[in-house]
Design brief:
Largest sheet of chain A: 6 strands, mixed
Order of helices and strands of chain A: EEEEEEEEEEE
Strand content of chain B: over 45%
Shape of chain B: globular
Oligomer: heterodimer
Strand content of chain A: over 45%
Radius of gyration of chain A: 14 Å
Number of strands of chain B: 11
Number of strands of chain A: 11
Distance between the termini of chain B: 37 Å
Largest interface: A-B, 24 and 31 residues
Shape of chain A: globular
Helix content of chain A: under 10%
Number of helices of chain B: 0
Radius of gyration of chain B: 13 Å
Largest sheet of chain B: 7 strands, mixed
Chain lengths: 114, 115
């Protein structure tokens, strides 16, 4: 079975500061890992994904994440926060079921302070 | 551009009503999913389908059923709506195992209120 833990349901950063959103996972199979972003009253949009190969993956809007197998982590970072980054962020891991369905974390609400 | 559409953005229903939520995708994806999203609980999988007329229960199927008569359309049915089914409902689709990297594409969501 898969599970995802996102540390911190709410994170606040100042504009221009580093963004770090934490995600730890457990998986019974080699994981595919994802970060999604959700703006108010919208669906989820894929930010980035790790499948195989390079462990540092770059996504849209300047975000990146590093897959660390030994730590079972896939933390999301951005060097400099922008006001438009304020949103809810979800980490997800793929399972081994018939549709390789995803298991999502409970989400982290990012607030960017002026 | 990939697209998943949901029939309603906002819906208000009364307790005991039968409710249909429709989802359509134009990406020729085999897999389709229904989630509900509640504050602090993230997304929870209700049902999914990996082929036409094929369906499997997710983590919280009680009180729900689904229908998939055509590849592009996946419907969620609340047989008798209850107030604890007030939630945001999200539909998603993905390529099948072995033909993609399993990322899911989401619709805009339906915010259902049951009074």
């Amino acid at each position: 079975a898969q599970s995802v833990t996102q540390l911190g349901s709410h994170v606040s950063v100042s504009e221009g500061a580093l963004v770090l959103l934490r995600c730890n996972y457990s998986s019974s199979v080699p994981p595919y890992l994802f970060w999604y972003v959700q703006y108010p009253n919208q669906g989820l949009q894929l930010l980035l994904k790790y499948t195989t190969g390079a462990t540092l993956v770059k996504g849209i809007n300047g975000f990146e994440a590093e897959f660390k197998k030994s730590e079972t982590s896939f933390h999301l970072t951005k060097p400099s926060a922008h006001m438009s980054d304020a949103a809810e962020y979800f980490c997800a891991v793929s399972g081994s079921g018939s549709a390789r369905q995803l298991t999502f974390g409970s989400g982290t609400q990012l607030t960017v302070l002026p | 551009d990939v697209k998943v559409t949901q029939s309603s953005r906002y819906l208000v229903k009364r307790t005991g009503e039968k409710v249909f939520l429709e989802c359509v995708q134009d990406m020729d994806h085999e897999n389709m999913f229904w989630y509900r999203q509640d504050p602090g609980l993230g997304l929870r999988l209700i049902y999914f389908s990996y082929d036409v007329k094929m369906k499997e229960k997710g983590d919280i199927p009680e009180g729900y059923s689904v229908s998939r008569e055509k590849k592009e359309r996946f419907s969620l049915i609340l047989e008798s709506a209850s107030t604890n089914q007030t939630s945001m409902y999200l539909c998603a689709s993905s390529s099948p195992a072995g033909r993609g990297t399993y990322e899911q594409y989401f619709g805009p969501g339906t915010r259902l209120t049951v009074t």
